Amino acid sequence: MANHKDEIKHPFNLTHQASEATRMLRSITDDFPDNPEAMNYFYDLYKKVYCEGVSLHENKKIVGTMCVQVPEELIYASGAVPVRLCNGFYTDDHNGADFMPAKSCSLVKATLGMLDSKSTLPFINRLDDIVLPATCDQKRKAGSMIADMGYSVYDMEVPPVKESEEARIYWRRSIRKFAGELKQITGKKLSKSSLKEAMAKISRAQKAYRKLYELRKQKNSVILGKDVFMVTNAYFFDEIESWTEAVNRLNVELEKRVEEKYSAAQRRAPRLLFTGSPAIFPNLKIPMLIEESGGVIVGDETCSSNRMLYDMVSSDEWHLNAMVDGIADNYLKPCTCPIFTKNDDRKRKLLHMAKEFAAEGVVYQSFSGCQVYSMEQASITKALNDEDIPVLFIESDYSPDDMGQLSTRIEAFIESLKAKRRRNRK
Ligand code: SF4
Ligand code: SF4
Hints:
Layout: H1 16-30, H2 40-51, E1 61-65, H3 72-77, E2 80-84, H4 90-96, H5 106-116, E3 127-133, H6 137-148, E4 153-156, H7 165-186, H8 192-215, H9 225-234, H10 240-259, E5 271-276, H11 285-292, E6 296-301, H12 306-309, H13 320-332, H14 344-356, E7 361-367, H15 371-386, E8 391-396, H16 403-425
Parallel strand pairs: 1-2, 1-3, 3-4, 5-6, 5-7, 7-8
The structure holds iron/sulfur cluster (2 copies).
The site of one iron/sulfur cluster has 11 residues, from loops.
């Protein structure tokens, strides 16, 4: 386990990371009127963790995860806590440039930058293991660099195809092997009851998320997308029971908003879906620009939100091996990340969501240097355009330099959706 604690020269609240988090939190809370009261739980949580460097999960083993492909049920059942390390800090992206070519994915660069940083978050300094699924090339190659920093890294094998029986067998074996790795880290053997309990814990969190998902279908949007990203990003690191209770409280408040016919967005704000490279705090640049420009994000297809929480693990068999296999299947099949060879599922999902959420357009973010999202955009755009759904494709990174240009493009897209609506009304 790496430990940079001794090297920290000044309190966390004076670090570049804390200033960046403070600036973004201020925008998220102050630039929008009438944020739901229940969002204060999340705003305060970010403040504590990212601005003050408060440590969470005291006295627990912590397993860092580098993708949604890591089955968290197994980590909880082994007595440890998962913390997702996918990082959204521009400051860390900058640090990460020492390890990767300049035109690399900001997410991976920022994660490396964070892990190498002398002022990194306290609970990051307590990582007992980092699980790195071999997904895209950049994540795959990051493992040995992280290991060189002194962390214990476990490379989890992921098949590149998800439809075949061979892939299913390969993946199930990989997950069983991972369960063995966890036993070595925590010293606790997986049991039927601990796994059942862990599945129930995650399922309660997913039920709360699904309720929030349903509430976003309302004609009057009861919550802005920037707040939903704050909620789902908090799942990366929060204590899961506290997170679930906070989402349930938020849902109760949003139900009241439905009764009162309250709209969190401007009336007639174009309804948008967000897809592509994940929005991760504090890099909520694109979601914020969309909602500052008069659009509203009603749904998303990203691994920092919907892809992480929507698909629930179920099991009809309560034998330990069958449960582990069931968990494995549920992580592979529904995953719509473009790292897999074919991805018709992603098209189907987006078309279905566009209908479900009455979305008028889609904003597709691809981080500069992310080949898979960029390569998949043409076919996704075609599938959506064929159904008369316009798509705005944005290639960007964590740098604030392109904000002006992006704002102009996003405003023009939103105006074009309004004009389309007017034409259709005639
Ligand atoms: S984009 Fe794909 S590979 Fe990267 S973290 Fe998300 S799900 Fe994993
Ligand atoms: S955005 Fe692309 S390059 Fe970055 S982690 Fe996801 S799949 Fe990999």
